[in-house]
Design a protein that fits this description.
Elements lengths: L13 H25 L2 H17 L5 E6 L10 H11 L9 E5 L6 E5 L4 E6 L2 E8 L7 E7 L3 H23 L3 E5 L6 E4 L13 H16 L1 H7 L4 E7 L6 H12 L2 E5 L7 H9 L5 E5 L6 H4 L18 H15 L3 E7 L7 H4 L6 E4 L5 H12 L7 H10 L4 H8 L5 H36 L1
Parallel strand pairs: 7-10, 9-12, 9-13, 10-11, 11-12
Antiparallel strand pairs: 1-6, 2-3, 4-5, 5-6, 7-8
Helix pairs in contact: 3-4, 8-10, 12-14, 13-15
Bound molecules: adenosine-5'-triphosphate.
């Protein structure tokens, strides 16, 4: 058992101990208040910063430091500052007792930041790098990173590139996507693009889905390749299939996957080659440029009709060749990282120039729903993987043409799987009756025709 004995050998009583403690805590509170009154918080931060700075600079003779600031007289904004701030925001952890938090218009979710005086220890290729955000009176904040001198080259060449690349990826991740609708010259309409479609929610053949994702990822990673072979860094996809098979949904899934903005070009109102060129030039890098239902404007797509022949103001005055030349020619000199998507319900009537190899890199057939596709829809809408009605639905889907859109509409009618799937069975049976009736009528017609012969 512990005993308290004073220097004089006198053992203090409990009441003495309590009164000592009370007077000690009152004195310390008083001193703390006086300190707060006399030393303002900003001064305290300043002194602590200075001490940390001195400690960091003198931490070891084999250490060296880089400063990342924005006071370069003859240069514009130092991009490394923004990149470092975002890079470090991902490294902030429980060891950081004070953290800045913000929400910014162009970013999804919250953003965290380092507070002056706080440090972060990062590791790159086994090298320890210590970061400190420093606030100096009258100057902007700057970053100081300290590491062993022998790694100077790796830090300069590889570490900073790693930070810039990570920053670029993080920016893409946090980006709020935009949908631009362009009808001719001018900025057009711009809204936030919040389409929920992703490759996961797309009801389509799994192998096709994987091959599209692989193609997009390959495109993203081949910047140097395109440069080396002297080709424009762009890719074209032609999506074709009946209405309601998910062409628009697939474009949204591609945009969400790539984190690209979407430009929806409405070509119906474009009056001249120049207007078309301006419209295309007005689109930004890292975007998907969409022309939907290209089969709907036959005049536009017929390459035999020369634009100058049109006198009627209501008829579009450019041809498919103009569009294709714009895409091929324009971006070979001034654009990069663009995806072009054309959609059609009738591939068979498209101008062969568009279908020529090299024009649209990938032709994607969006087909009627398959049994595999239906499982994805059931999982999306009802959150179920199995159900006794699935077998019957599979058999019916195999023998009728039904779009994912029609099935999705049926699945939305109820949250109860029995009810929603019952509706799907009724829809498919109805489609089977329609199909049988059509086949009977067709057979009768053929019989009649052969009788007449
Ligand atoms: N393959 C699919 N996977 C998941 N949902 C789909 C799919 N196809 C259609 N849908 C659903 O049906 C709706 C309509 O589909 P969407 O507009 O993408 O079809 P579309 O082929 O572009 O039609 P259109 O040719 O008429 O423009 C979508 O919002 C989505 O809910």
């Amino acid at each position: 058992m512990a005993t308290f004995i004073s220097r004089s050998g006198f053992i203090p009583s409990t009441s003495h101990l309590i009164s000592y403690y009370a007077s000690f805590s009152t004195t310390s509170m008083l001193l703390r208040n006086v300190y707060r009154e006399v030393v303002p918080q900003k001064l305290e931060e300043y002194v602590l910063n200075k001490l940390r700075f001195l400690f960091f600079s003198k931490v070891s003779p084999s250490c060296c430091s880089f400063i990342i600031d924005d006071s370069w007289e003859f240069f514009d904004h130092n991009e490394l500052i923004e990149a470092a701030a975002m890079y470090l925001s991902n490294k902030i952890g429980v060891q950081n007792k004070k953290v800045r938090v913000g929400k910014f218009r162009k970013e999804q979710g919250l953003t965290t930041g380092l507070v002056p005086g706080e440090e972060i220890v990062d590791e790159f290729k086994g090298i320890k790098v210590t970061w400190l955000l420093v606030r100096e009176k009258g100057n902007d904040n700057y970053f100081m990173l300290t590491f062993e001198e022998e790694h100077r080259d790796v830090i300069l060449k590889d570490y900073f590139n790693h930070i810039l690349d990570t920053h670029e990826n993080m920016k893409q991740e946090k980006k709020v996507l935009k949908l631009f609708t362009k009808r001719g010259r001018g900025p057009g309409q711009k809204i936030n693009f919040n389409h929920p479609s992703t490759f996961e929610t797309m009801a389509m053949d799994n192998d096709l889905k994987k091959s599209i994702i692989a193609d997009l990822d390959k495109f993203l990673s081949r910047k140097d390749f395109y440069r080396r072979v002297g080709k424009t860094w762009k890719r074209g996809y032609l999506l074709y299939g009946p209405p309601g098979t998910g062409k628009s949904s697939l474009i949204a899934a591609m945009a969400n996957h790539l984190k690209y903005n979407v430009y929806n070009l409405e070509l119906g109102n474009v009056r001249s080659d120049i207007e078309l060129r301006d419209m295309l030039l007005d689109t930004a890098d890292k975007s998907i440029i969409v022309v939907e239902d290209i089969d709907c404007n036959q005049e536009v797509w017929n390459r035999d009709v020369k634009s100058s022949n049109f006198s009627d103001y209501n008829i579009p005055k450019f041809t498919l060749s103009t569009l294709l030349n714009c895409i091929d020619g324009l971006w070979s000199v001034c654009g990069e990282e663009r995806i072009f998507v054309f959609t059609t319900n009738h591939k068979e009537i498209l101008d062969p120039a568009l279908l020529r190899p090299g024009r649209m890199d990938m032709h994607i057939h969006m087909s009627y729903c398959t049994t595999q596709g239906f499982r994805i829809l059931a999982s999306n809408y009802l959150e179920i993987k199995e159900h006794p009605l699935f077998e019957q639905i599979d058999d019916l889907i195999k023998c009728v043409d039904v779009t994912p859109a029609a099935l999705a509409e049926e699945l939305m009618r109820s949250d109860l799987p029995d009810v929603a799937l019952g509706g799907v069975v009724d829809l498919l049976k109805q489609k089977r009756i329609e199909r049988d009736t059509k086949e009977v009528e067709k057979a009768k017609k053929m019989e009649k025709e052969s009788d007449q012969k």
